[in-house]
Amino acid sequence: MQEMEEVMTPVDLYVGGGDLLLTNLTGHPTVVLPDGFRKVGGTETPTPITFTGRLYGETDLLAVAHAYQQATGHHLRRPPMDKLTARSPAASDT
């Protein structure tokens, strides 16, 4: 925890670093948000963005995360569910 705090001292927050194990071990707050979509096998799937802040810096971190959501609107999009929720003919017979 102390080593991570020393690294984070000159940093307000950092973007990326999707490995949440580090923050789970050190207690640094992390927010994971939608960051758009990518096509995988013909289907769009959501992609994440990660913001990590200083210890006890949740207020600043959440303010940045909220501003990011307001600027991008990625959190308003949903993956297409029609293929996943479509009933197969065999399922409708039961």
Strand order of the largest sheet: 1-3-2
Largest sheet entry: 3 strands, antiparallel
Helix and strand pattern: HEHEEHHH
- The helicity comes to 25-40%
Number of domains: 1
Question: Would you tell me the overall average pLDDT?
Answer: 84
**Beta-strand content estimate:** 25-35%
Radius of gyration: 18 Å
Could you list the spans in which at least 5 consecutive residues all have pLDDT below 50? none
Q: Name the structural class.
A: alpha+beta
Number of helices: 5
Cα(first) to Cα(last) distance is 55 Å
Shape: elongated
Counting DSSP E segments of at least 2 residues, the number of strands comes to 3
Task: Set down the secondary structure blueprint.
Layout: H1 2-8, E1 13-15, H2 20-26, E2 30-40, E3 43-53, H3 58-72, H4 82-85, H5 89-92
Antiparallel strand pairs: 1-3, 2-3
